[in-house]
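Note to self: keep these together.
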Amino acid sequence: AMPTIDLAGSWYDPAHNGEGFVVQPLENGEAAVYWFTYDANGEQAWLHNTGTIEGGRIVFPNLLQPKGGGFGRSFDPAAVQLEPWGELELQLNCGGGTAAYDPAAAGFSRGAQNLVNLTRLQNSGCGAP
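Structure:
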């Protein structure tokens, strides 16, 4: 298995312009992900949660989609709802990887993306992207 430091960074599929994943390995075999994407209507959706690193896979069984938030002075933390979104599985290595997802939330489709690395940590064993 590759060292978890090599998984850290940002990943995207060139066929899905304007979308991408930020992956941060944590302690105890877990990782956090932020996925910037869009729903079927082209509305932005930011998904996140932690998952488990299992060999060459990172499994996120329950991504969350924050809804109801505003920016700046209109931000009200009480208005933010974390809605269950669905599942994500990442398989990453120095050469790239895949994202497979199965949403439970309406307005999204099951699918997969072929990922390339956009940024990685300076001390990564993979070298520069």
